[in-house]
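2024-03-11 09:14:02 INFO worker-7 job=invfold-0412 stage=load source=structure_tokens
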């Protein structure tokens, strides 16, 4: 795609600090977003905004959990996505949270945070605040991920999320965040598993 994608934040400490500070503001900014402008938005977006399917977070130190942190400074969006992989290699649980970057001036309230997990028949959780399109993208993505393998999850594309939700062109960055967060979570999980395998191999040859 020729479109510029949201910047991925690699520094977990930096982003975690922003998420923590944003959480402290949620009680103040959330009420103003309870009645977002619905004109021009498809009913699917409104449905996911008003009743997000999945809310929650998981232990980032769990070896079966992959975490992705991505952000779009231009629009003030930060998404945390986690995935937990079950014994059968499928998404067991997925959760996410979205917050605004606090250095941006008067941004819409926090968005959604997603955490993924892998194993058949899992329950997905989402915690969403702010932009309706971001919440909808996160909520739908967790539903889509459920029960899928890592390879299947890696095929996710923002254009498919946008098409399902019928996102307006100015909100396509929300679906891009969801895609990038999923792929970063997958990579984090794979890195953890590779490190564990290396430790096991080293112990076996010691």
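2024-03-11 09:14:09 INFO worker-7 stage=emit residues=206
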């Amino acid at each position: 795609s020729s479109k510029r994608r949201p910047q991925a934040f690699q520094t977990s400490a930096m982003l975690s600090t922003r998420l923590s500070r944003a959480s402290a503001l949620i009680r103040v900014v959330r009420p103003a977003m309870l009645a977002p402008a619905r004109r021009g938005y498809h009913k699917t977006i409104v449905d996911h905004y008003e009743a997000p399917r999945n809310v929650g977070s998981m232990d980032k130190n769990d070896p079966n959990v992959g975490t992705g942190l991505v952000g779009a400074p231009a629009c003030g969006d930060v998404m945390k996505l986690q995935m937990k992989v079950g014994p059968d290699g499928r998404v067991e649980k997925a959760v996410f949270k979205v917050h605004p970057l606090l250095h941006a001036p008067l941004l819409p309230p926090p968005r959604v945070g997603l955490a993924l997990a892998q194993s058949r028949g899992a329950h997905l959780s989402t915690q969403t605040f702010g932009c309706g399109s971001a919440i909808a993208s996160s909520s739908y993505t967790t539903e889509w991920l459920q029960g899928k393998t890592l390879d299947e999850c890696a095929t996710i594309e923002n254009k498919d999320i946008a098409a399902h939700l019928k996102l307006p062109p100015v909100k396509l960055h929300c679906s891009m965040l969801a895609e990038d967060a999923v792929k970063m979570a997958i990579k984090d999980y794979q890195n953890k598993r590779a490190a564990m395998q290396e430790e096991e191999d080293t112990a076996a040859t010691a």
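2024-03-11 09:14:09 INFO worker-7 stage=report msg="Residues 6-10, 24-37, 102-128 have pLDDT under 50 and may be disordered."
2024-03-11 09:14:10 INFO worker-7 job finished
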